[in-house]
Structures are given as C-alpha cells and as structure tokens.
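Notes from hallway chat w/ T.B., transcribed later so I don't forget. T.B. wanted the structure written out for a chain they're using in a teaching module, and asked if we could keep both sequence and structure tokens in one place. Agreed to drop them here.
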Amino acid sequence: MVGDDEVATADAGPEARTPRWVGLAAAGAGLAVLAAGLVWWSPWAGGDPAANRIDVTGEIRTHDPALVVGDEGEDWYVYSTGDVRVGLGAPQIRRSTDQGQTWEMVGTAWDAQTRPEWVYEVVPGVENFWAPELYEHDGTWYLYYSASTFGSNRSLIGLMTSPTLDVDDPDYGWTDQGEVWRSAPGETHYNAIDPGIVEDADGTPWMAFGSFWGGIQMIELEWPSGTAAAGTEPQVLATRNDSLNAIEAPHVIERDGWYYLFVSRDKCCSGTESTYSIAVGRSESVTGPYVDSLGNDMRYNGGDVVLATRGGMIGPGGQSVSKNHLGLHFYDGSLGGDFRLDIRELAWTADGWPVAWTETELDGQ
C-alpha cells in the first residue's frame, strides 16, 4: 500500500508545479528505464503514418489540458489545472481562434462569487483545482474537476454545467451541480481525481478516474445529471501492478468499435526531472479489459508507450483527446523545464493503434 510519501499535484503558476509525488526519484528512474525500453519497440514501427504536431504559440503554460477542438470556423478551448493566485485556483481557460495555433487566456471557470463553497468543507485545505474534463451532451457542456490536497486521497470530483463554451456568449456561465464521486483515507483504496468521460454504444456515460493508490477506476454515470448512476461501484481498469502504482490521468475515447484508454505513467511535475509518459490500451468493452498490442492487460502493467521524453520534450502527459487531436503538457528542456502545452493530430496504424510521434521523432532526429 502506498503511504504518506504520495503527494498530489497542483499548478504553482509561474513556477513549475509542485511534484504530485515526492520522494520518488529512485523509483521513478527505474520505471523510466522500463518505459524508455518500451518506446523502442512499438506496433507503429516500420513506415506507418506519423502524427502532425501543431506549432502552438501564445499563452501555453498549462498543466493537464482538457482540449476541445472546435468545428470548422469555431474556436478551440483548453481548460487546465488552476493556480491559487488566479481566480481562486479555478480551472484556467484558454482559447484559440486559429485552429489551435495561437492561444490566449480568457479567464477561469469561476470566481469568488461563483466558486463551489461546499468543496472547501469536504476537502479541507484545498487551494486549487486540478485536471479538468470537458464533455458535451445534448447541447450542454459538462465541466468535471478534481479537488484534493498534497499527500492525501481525501479527494473529490465535482461538476459544473454551461450551455456554451463561448466566453463571449451572453448565455455562457458555469452552474454548480455538486459532487460526482469522492475518496477518503482509510475508506477507499483509490484517489478520486483526474476524471475522463466517455459514452458507450448505448449512450450510457462512464467516468474513468484515479491517481496512484489503487490505480485507474471506472464508474457509470447517468444523463442528464452527469453524476454517478445509482448503485454504481468502481471497477479497476489499469494499474502498474506494484506498490508505487505510478499511473493516473485516464482518458477514454471510442473509435471504430474499440475503446482506447490513454494514461499517464511515472513521475509528473518535476521539470527536467520528470519521467511522465503516455501509454494506451484498447478494449471492445468500455469497462475493459484494456490490453496493449501484445495482449498485455493494463490491469497488470500493460500498455504501449505512445509518447515519452525525447530531446527537449521532457515528461509528456496529462493528456486528453478531442476530434483526433491529442492535447498534453510537457517540460521544455530548452527553457529549464518550464511547462508547455502540446497538441498533435494523431495518426493510426492499419490495425488500429494510435501514433502520437511525429515523423521527425520516429526517425530519431
């Protein structure tokens, strides 16, 4: 069982964010070696299509980006982990009016008058809100967010809704819908943060979540509330199958009858010392089991590494996917480890595996 050496993450603003898990350098280094080894073999080696990386500019200092790619002619949005010094730690909002190339910060999800006051009672000491998720259903946008504190799984996932993401629309505004799920020390062997929403073939919504502790979990939700379905219980989707269990940030998408589970593994938020990487598995059922291209079960440390440290891109992770575009953060080695937004249009192999590496990266240049 992981103990008090676990430290949850929050955006520290202009400085690099406090590590989500401290005291892990030795273990993280060992895991990084394993991850690095996996990168050299992959199901997309050998002339398959490569991802297209967008050259993003502007205000791009984000952690845990929830990316929404607009339709033709529409704006793109990124919601990301908050900063206690800006909007009382609410998720930050960035917008692009040129198909994801140039980004500007356009506010936070709430302010002193509209923040969810009840969260501060459930999670004493919470300062900022992490790893948001955006999902649209039947004309309503659902904003899921994480509330926790360093070193504790006394955490919750909350929900707000808005009829639009357009911050210039008179109808724009987030309405508190309360709690979706929570975890508590001594009661749950999981951590209720990092939500990721997906609908199954029947239109039933599901939420993947989790960070360290018992790994990645999934519960059933219900529409139109967007909250937990009656009687649902968490089921495990993925773990590292060891005592550290360095896995988090689940995001699930459906494509061609398959569900794909993207996760971040190893150590985040330590600048140039970060060992984060992104791994994926797939399943024909939304609840799993999710396996990699070799058939390894993600409940037992399976998963193909689709993106990891290479050159000045250090510790990529905290990912989301919107309209085949992968949004993530990484630490820029050329800037001393400052964190940055990255967006890539995924390519896919003939047998249905995502490719996040660019052609240059695949060539090892």
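Follow-up for T.B.: The domain at 25-362 is CATH 2.115.10.20 (Tachylectin-2; Chain A). Might be a good example for the class.
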